[in-house]
Amino acid sequence: MTPHNQAKKDEIAKIVLMPGDPLRAKYIATHYLTDIHCFNTVRNMLGYTGLYQGQTLSIMGSGMGMPSIGIYSYELYTQYDVDTIIRIGSCGALIPSLDLFDVILADSAWSRSTYAQQQSHDANRIQYPTLEINQALKKAANEQNQWLHPCRFHSSDVFYYEAGIDSGALANQCAVVEMESFALFHNAKVTGKKAACLCTVSDSLVTHQETTAQQRETAFDTMAQIALGGSLYV
Ligand SMILES: O=P(O)(O)O[C@H]1O[C@H](CO)[C@@H](O)[C@H]1O
Ligand SMILES: O=c1cc[nH]c(=O)[nH]1
């Protein structure tokens, strides 16, 4: 147990799907897993373990932002022997060619965050997912006839900008913005574990279209199904 997670070690699977929203975790667990068991309610950061096509899998919220996913993912990797975390988030489109509900796969995450610098003196502004997990997700998407858009993410500490879209994100060819992948990829690297990040486009910073809070909780089924399918190839 940790200050943030009441689970015993054997209650969490080797693979964890991790949305920011704990209610998205509950929705996916209750709709797609069988034999589910809720292993964490501390701070309402709900976590579930169950079976997906016979394989044990966990789904747990990360909360919003790098400090939050930094805590939960580090504990999962170092105290619960989790091997792989696949973030299943929402993101804002930074380029006009992306539509609401498109599913995006991070091939890298650029950030101004000091998370990696503070955590391990890692000064890299770009962190990377695990290639083998991205390949598993691409294979699952292919099988499901879904198109996955691989691109660089801007992993930001900010949701509401007074100064407009971060020019550094555009200069670094980021196609979407979200708030966790950089810290997750860093934690996977320093612990010798694996990570990937899928996001569904929930809004566009270009067209200003947006989904509702309810859709962000319960309407990201395409992404969930790709992550669930990919977990079988990990
Ligand atoms: O929907 P989730 O997974 O929380 O992801 C995105 O949504 C939150 C902001 O609304 C941030 O956590 C951002 O990364
Ligand atoms: O961080 C995020 C997530 C979704 N949409 C945004 O605009 N930013």
TrEMBL record:
Pfam families: PNP_UDP_1
InterPro entries in UniProt: DeoD-type, Nucleoside_phosphorylase_CS, Nucleoside_phosphorylase_d, Nucleoside_phosphorylase_sf
Sequence ranges assigned to domain Nucleoside phosphorylase in this UniProt record: 14-218
GO MF term list: purine-nucleoside phosphorylase activity
EC code(s) of this entry: 2.4.2.3
Catalytic activity: uridine + phosphate = alpha-D-ribose 1-phosphate + uracil
Tree of life domain: Bacteria
Primary enzyme class: transferase
Keywords, alphabetical: Glycosyltransferase, Transferase
Recorded family membership: Belongs to the PNP/UDP phosphorylase family.
Descriptive protein name: Uridine phosphorylase
Organism: Absicoccus intestinalis
